[in-house]
């Protein structure tokens, strides 16, 4: 019936129940159960992006139970409670929360939520806690106040990711979920890197992700990320994402991308709706995604503390200075 081909559809209309079933199966088989396939979700604020991440996590646990999931907490309200509730609690599975020294996270969720709390000295050590078939939440962002520290930690973390991935020192298959990815890989002029050093560090993270995206895919390490606007994401990183989900207000601006001809379709869709874009540029019918309980209906989260990165160790005294001091002692 050709529901895979947008040319044969009236894509502005909501998918029929039959089409919805087709696309859901398609998505599960070709993305959820296919390790390493990166996915980019684009949409204006309040267009349902984070809810779609809950939907993916729910599907990972159901249809790809060996996949490890690492979710980066951005500290937005009580969002991580929805993840813990659907990804762990309802399935009677434990979850791991990773924080930094001096940072405390208080999770008031449903009674019986099985959480293991660990502290890592540096964000780069988070990769030790990617656990087969489990959810790990890395709660770093809410504790980092300085932009320089944020970009530095993210550069170090992505450097460690590529270093370890090459050496197969990370559990795979795994999905790394990063909401609001424009803060990690901003297009020129969009990042919050204010100084030359911040910009340099940010460029480093961007280049690492750009260079390694294909290798991560081959090693069954997937990036699943959301952004507000296509133009805010660094152009060199965009091409790593062949699979996309377009929510309200997505605007593809590349002149070579035929998808940009269809921007009108997703410009004004309502929050529950979105389109799945395939690597060949074709896309699904207008899909209606399910609604998950918001975290604030399930409990609350409180954060306390600020992360202070370890000071770089003082340089070793120069040989000459040491000799001078020793001579002084002898006198
Ligand atoms: N499929 C859905 N059905 C009904 N309501 C939904 C659905 N998806 C999202 N919502 C509601 O819409 C609001 C926005 O959803 P969500 O937080 O996922 O959007 P967002 O794109 O992540 O927003 P932001 O960019 O501000 O983070 C929430 O109140 C959520 O409960
Ligand atoms: Mg969101």
Short summary of the structure?
With 331 residues, the chain is of the alpha/beta class. The protein is built from eight helices and twelve strands.
Question: How would you characterize the overall build of this protein?
Answer:
With 331 residues, the protein is α/β, with parallel strands linked by helices. It has one domain (6-330): P-loop containing nucleotide triphosphate hydrolases (Rossmann fold), CATH 3.40.50. 31% of the residues lie in helices and 17% in strands. The chain has helices at residues 17-32, 49-63, 79-87, 147-166, 196-218, 235-238, 263-267, 319-330; strands at residues 39-42, 68-72, 95-99, 104-108, 115-119, 135-138, 174-178, 221-227, 243-246, 273-277, 287-288, 300-304. Strands 5-3-6-2-7-8-1-9-10-11 form a 10-stranded mixed beta sheet. Strands 4-12 form a two-stranded antiparallel ribbon. β7, α5 (196-218) and β8 form a beta-alpha-beta unit. α2 packs parallel to α3 and α4 packs parallel to α5. It is globular and about 85 Å long. The structure holds adenosine-5'-triphosphate and magnesium ion. The site of magnesium ion has 3 residues, from α2. Residues 305-331 are annotated as: Disordered.
List the helices and strands and how they pair.
Blueprint: H1 17-32, E1 39-42, H2 49-63, E2 68-72, H3 79-87, E3 95-99, E4 104-108, E5 115-119, E6 135-138, H4 147-166, E7 174-178, H5 196-218, E8 221-227, H6 235-238, E9 243-246, H7 263-267, E10 273-277, E11 287-288, E12 300-304, H8 319-330
Parallel strand pairs: 1-8, 1-9, 2-6, 2-7, 3-5, 3-6, 7-8
Antiparallel strand pairs: 4-12, 9-10, 10-11
The site of adenosine-5'-triphosphate has 14 residues, from helix 2.
């Amino acid at each position: 019936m050709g529901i895979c081909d947008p040319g044969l559809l009236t894509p502005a209309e909501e998918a029929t129940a039959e089409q919805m079933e087709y696309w859901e199966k398609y998505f599960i088989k070709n993305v959820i159960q296919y390790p390493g396939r990166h996915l980019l979700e684009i949409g204006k604020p309040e267009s349902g992006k984070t809810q779609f991440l809950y939907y993916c996590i729910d599907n990972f646990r159901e249809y790809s139970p060996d996949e490890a999931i690492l979710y980066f907490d951005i500290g937005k309200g009580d969002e991580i409670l929805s993840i813990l509730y659907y990804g762990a609690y309802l399935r009677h599975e434990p979850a791991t929360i990773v924080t930094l020294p001096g940072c405390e996270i208080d999770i008031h969720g449903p009674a019986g939520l099985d959480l293991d709390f660990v502290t890592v000295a540096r964000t780069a050590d988070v990769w030790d806690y990617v656990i087969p078939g489990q959810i790990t939440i890395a709660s770093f962002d809410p504790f980092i106040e300085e932009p320089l520290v944020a970009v530095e930690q993210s550069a170090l973390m992505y450097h460690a990711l590529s270093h370890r991935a090459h050496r197969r020192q990370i559990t795979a298959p795994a999905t790394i979920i990063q909401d609001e990815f424009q803060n990690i890989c901003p297009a020129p002029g969009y990042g919050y890197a204010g100084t030359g050093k911040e910009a340099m560090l940010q460029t480093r993270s961007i280049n690492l992700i750009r260079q390694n995206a294909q290798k991560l895919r081959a090693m069954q390490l997937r990036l699943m990320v959301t952004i507000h606007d296509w133009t805010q994401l660094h152009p060199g990183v965009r091409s790593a994402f062949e699979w996309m989900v377009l929510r309200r207000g997505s605007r593809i601006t590349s002149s070579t991308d035929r998808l940009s001809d269809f921007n009108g379709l997703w410009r004004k869709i309502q929050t529950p709706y979105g389109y799945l874009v395939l690597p060949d540029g074709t896309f699904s019918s207008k899909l209606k995604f399910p609604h998950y309980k918001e975290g604030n209906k399930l409990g609350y989260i409180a954060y306390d503390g600020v992360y202070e990165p370890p000071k770089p160790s003082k340089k070793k005294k120069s040989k000459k200075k040491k000799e001078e001091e020793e001579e002084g002692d002898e006198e």
